[in-house]
Amino acid sequence: MPGKRARRHFSQLSEFERDLIIGMKTVGWSTRRVAGQVDRSECAVRNCWEQWTREDTQARKTGSGATRKTTRREDRRIVRQALVDPTVTRSTIRTDVGVAIVPQTISRHLSEANLKSKHPFRLLPLTPEHRQLRLQWCQARSM
């Protein structure tokens, strides 16, 4: 729809935004007007306001996400193995750590440590001497 701004999806309300929502709703603004002003969904504004009226607090509740499968020590071990041997695979790291984790967990720990994945070469890189010999071979057979 033209004229509508794209809303930010899947990001938490900041403490400032929560205070702003509560202030605007306290003054008497409608949920729709507040949502347009803070560029959030009406549902997010309504949930924030309901929490304020019900619990008299606007603080975020702690998440109940999944429990961690690895300890901080195991996390460091994963990163250390990747640093020591850059060609080590995720399955090798998983067996060495000894914890039942999925390969995506290992990748996430490595990316959190700013380590990028290293793909093996499909072909060996050519040395300057190999390039020269290859060029000579091609030129001799070009006619």
Label this structure with key terms.
143 residues; mainly alpha; elongated; Transposase_Tc1-like; Homeodomain-like_sf
**Alpha carbon gap, first and last residue:** 63 Å
Number of strands: 0
Helix content class: 55-70%
Main sheet characteristics: none
Number of helices: 7
Q: Spans of 5+ residues with little confidence (pLDDT < 50)?
A: none
- What structural class results from the helix and strand content? mainly alpha
- The fraction of residues in strands falls at under 5%
Protein name: Transposable element Tc1 transposase
Pfam families: HTH_Tnp_Tc3_2
Main location: nucleus
Subcellular location: Nucleus
Write a compact overview of the structure shown.
With 143 residues, the chain is mainly alpha-helical. It is built from seven helices and no strands.
Give an overview in words:
- One of its GO terms (cellular component) is nucleus.
- Residues 75-140 form the Transposase Tc1-like domain.
- It is found in: Nucleus.
- Pfam families: HTH_Tnp_Tc3_2.
- InterPro entries: Homeodomain-like_sf, Transposase_Tc1-like.
- With 143 residues, this protein is mostly helical.
- 55% of the residues lie in helices and 0% in strands.
- It contains 7 helices and no strands.
- The chain has helices at residues 15-27, 31-38, 42-55, 72-84, 90-97, 103-112, 128-140.
- α1 (15-27) runs antiparallel to α2 (31-38), α1 packs across α3 (42-55) and α2 (31-38) crosses α3.
- The longest helix is centred in the middle third of the chain and has 14 residues, at 42-55.
- It is elongated and about 85 Å long.
- The termini are far apart.
- The model has no long low-confidence stretch (mean pLDDT 83).
